[in-house]
From TrEMBL:
InterPro entries hit by this protein: Cro/C1-type_HTH, Lambda_DNA-bd_dom_sf
Protein name stated in the entry: XRE family transcriptional regulator
Upper taxonomic lineage: Bacteria, Pseudomonadati, Bacteroidota, Flavobacteriia, Flavobacteriales
Gene3D superfamilies: lambda repressor-like DNA-binding domains
Protein species of origin: Paenimyroides viscosum
Single GO molecular function: DNA binding
CDD domains: HTH_XRE (cd00093)
Domain of life: Bacteria
Domain HTH cro/C1-type positions: 15-69
């Protein structure tokens, strides 16, 4: 378990969820963001590091506030180490 990889995966799942709520396809997101569908697939799968600039592109395309991409359940305690 690595914190950053898990967060990337959760952001990707959130992009998928919002895209489906909006009845959008990856092709729709490609048109709206300028990001090709292969890259979108990697973002959605949590396989690609996402920048703030890309988060903003997705937020605009999904018609949501950027913070909505971080709207998921997350337990930081499982990453805490005991001293």
């Amino acid at each position: 378990m690595e914190l950053s990889n898990d967060v990337l995966e959760l952001i990707g799942k959130r992009i998928i969820e919002l895209r489906k709520i909006n009845n959008q396809t990856q092709n729709d997101l490609e048109f709206l963001t300028g990001i090709d569908t292969g890259e979108i697939s990697r973002y959605e799968g949590g396989k690609r590091n996402i920048t703030i600039k890309t988060i903003c592109k997705f937020a605009l395309a999904l018609n949501v506030h950027p913070k909505e991409l971080f709207n998921f359940d997350f337990d930081i305690n499982k990453y805490q180490t005991e001293n």
